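S.,

Sequence below, as promised.
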Amino acid sequence: MTRYCGRDFTPEEFQQIRFLIKHNPDFNRTRLSKEVCGIFQWLKPDGNLKDMSCRVAMLRMHRDGLIELPPPTCVKGPQKKIEFTASTDPQDPVVRPVNQLPRLQLKMVTKATSALWNEYVERYHYLGGSYDDFPCCK
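The prediction came back faster than expected:
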């Protein structure tokens, strides 16, 4: 078995995915991921398909040479490179009981806080940066 995005895939499942791709040449990557989720009953706790996890998993399978995905139908243009600042550098973990943490505050989003959010997403979220940086996608 091989693990992708928190799910173990058997050699037989890789074969099923290859069969699905081969016999449905008109399916794009999104349609393929939805079909794979349906076939394997790969669902979120709310019962919806784990479509995004499946797309990430299938892209990694493709890069690992286990399946051959069709070319992407939507190719993104050059993306603005986000430079990392000290604001999003890793910090020491917080190790306090929850009742000793400060109260949460909600604040309006500004251009500055929006840029900070984008920097955090680029640095730490599995959709930003390299997939290899995130243990959930190995």
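The mean pLDDT is 88.

Coffee later?
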